[in-house]
């Protein structure tokens, strides 16, 4: 994946090479839940953009600000206008990511949020994962080639230095629009070798790949899919861990090029 | 649902009232499969727009032309650039619908395609359905209010005259990203009282609702979910029925206002 361009393929490749050697400037952070986003907004001292870059009628929210040498844009799909709940899931995440890339031309996307983890794969509540790759777990199209399309496997930007420096766990991420897995979703996640499961990442990756923006997926384990229910205290600790992780990653990125990550 | 505007709510309502009394001018036809779209493209004498209104890199295709008094735009999410198959499903459908509304400001969206039908609900291969309402069948979020958000039930534009004049069947439509239903998807479709099942409509409806564009969902039954497999001849007949249905609906719309439908 490479930065968004508007030239021929050869020119694109030159731009990619240049971008990899240029300090990262504009970051797009995509977070599905506003309650997860607000601690990050406060920590990075961002403010809500009241002159929206988005069309009238959409509930999408952008928080913006400069943090160190970075131009930070944190976007959320916002609240459903009829129901008042966060617009979680793949469709709103893909739309707000698309519109944000078009409006803001970011150098890098960070999709951050809480996720479910698989104990059998070593995940514990509060663990911070950076995804090596992402795929859908609930798009079963058993026709040759369409099956691969449905899976939608995409690699995240390679970030070996970031992972080592911040001591992050690395694993495969599966995305599905249901909070509770069907037997078939579960089989798909086992086939994906997934360690964590969220509701947006593979859709964000799809859009980022279409528009050639490198992406990082940062997920904090808030519940265990194959274990006990999460306590309120554990939930609260996961939210705090998410804010710390996004801040640490942002600090690490500051002043660096894509190839330094 | 009402036409796209850029004014206050009161002004919006006035615009809606006016739009309902103004002949429909610009139509956006959204079709997921290019093989289904091409007979319609040929019949309506549309031509591919080579100076794309879409960003570089996206596979989305637009066919355009004037047919009688209508400015017709038929868009497809196109082929996956790596895999070469049609970009079916909710995420690409929502993106191409969003970008097309932004670029073209249509008066009306027609989402057309083939779909699965339920024999137990009276569907037969080749039947042409116009959806009364659409919902997702694969977004299970068993938390109060989020459950309704996941379902995403939306009413289509009311079209009693169109339905009567063209002798169309009317029924509820469920959308899911899997071709083959899980037990849970099936239970959700029974709960939705669905007669037909496709892979895009509820996502198109979500975007159309966000941006206040009235929408019609026209689906031809190509296979029976609770019955025998479709023969090659039946598939071919369903494609022909889809082309005829889109043409007949377009003919019916020509010269009419939204409130005449």
TrEMBL record, chains A, B:
<dbReference type="GO" id="GO:0009116">
    <property type="term" value="P:nucleoside metabolic process"/>
</dbReference>
<dbReference type="GO" id="GO:0008930">
    <property type="term" value="F:methylthioadenosine nucleosidase activity"/>
</dbReference>
<dbReference type="Pfam" id="PF01048">
    <property type="entry name" value="PNP_UDP_1"/>
</dbReference>
<dbReference type="InterPro" id="IPR000845">
    <property type="entry name" value="Nucleoside_phosphorylase_d"/>
</dbReference>
<dbReference type="InterPro" id="IPR035994">
    <property type="entry name" value="Nucleoside_phosphorylase_sf"/>
</dbReference>
<dbReference type="InterPro" id="IPR044580">
    <property type="entry name" value="MTAN"/>
</dbReference>
<feature type="domain" description="Nucleoside phosphorylase">
    <location>
        <begin position="26"/>
        <end position="247"/>
    </location>
</feature>
<dbReference type="GO" id="GO:0019509">
    <property type="term" value="P:L-methionine salvage from methylthioadenosine"/>
</dbReference>
<protein>
    <recommendedName>
        <fullName>Nucleoside phosphorylase domain-containing protein</fullName>
    </recommendedName>
</protein>
């Amino acid at each position: 994946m490479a930065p968004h361009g508007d030239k021929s393929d050869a020119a694109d490749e030159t731009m990619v090479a240049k971008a990899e050697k240029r300090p990262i400037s504009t970051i797009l952070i995509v977070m599905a839940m506003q309650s997860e986003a607000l601690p990050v907004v406060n920590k990075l001292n961002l403010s809500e953009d009241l002159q929206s870059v988005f069309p009238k009628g959409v509930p999408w929210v952008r928080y913006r600000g400069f943090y160190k040498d970075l131009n930070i844009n944190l976007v959320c799909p916002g609240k459903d206008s009829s129901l008042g709940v966060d617009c979680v899931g793949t469709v709103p995440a893909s739309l707000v990511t698309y519109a944000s890339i078009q409006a803001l031309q970011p150098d890098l996307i960070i999709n951050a949020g809480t996720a479910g983890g698989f104990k059998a794969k070593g995940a514990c509540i509060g663990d911070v994962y950076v995804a090596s790759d992402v795929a859908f777990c609930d798009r079963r199209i058993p026709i040759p080639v369409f099956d691969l399309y449905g899976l939608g496997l995409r690699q995240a930007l390679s970030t070996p230095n970031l992972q080592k420096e911040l001591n992050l766990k690395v694993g495969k991420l599966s995305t599905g629009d249901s909070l509770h897995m069907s037997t078939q979703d579960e089989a798909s996640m086992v086939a994906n070798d997934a360690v964590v499961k969220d509701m947006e990442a593979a859709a964000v990756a799809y859009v980022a790949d279409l528009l050639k923006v490198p992406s990082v997926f940062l997920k904090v384990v808030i519940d265990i899919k194959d274990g006990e229910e999460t306590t309120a205290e554990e939930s609260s600790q996961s939210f705090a861990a998410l804010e710390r992780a996004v801040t640490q990653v942002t600090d690490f990125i500051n002043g660096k090029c894509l190839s330094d990550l």
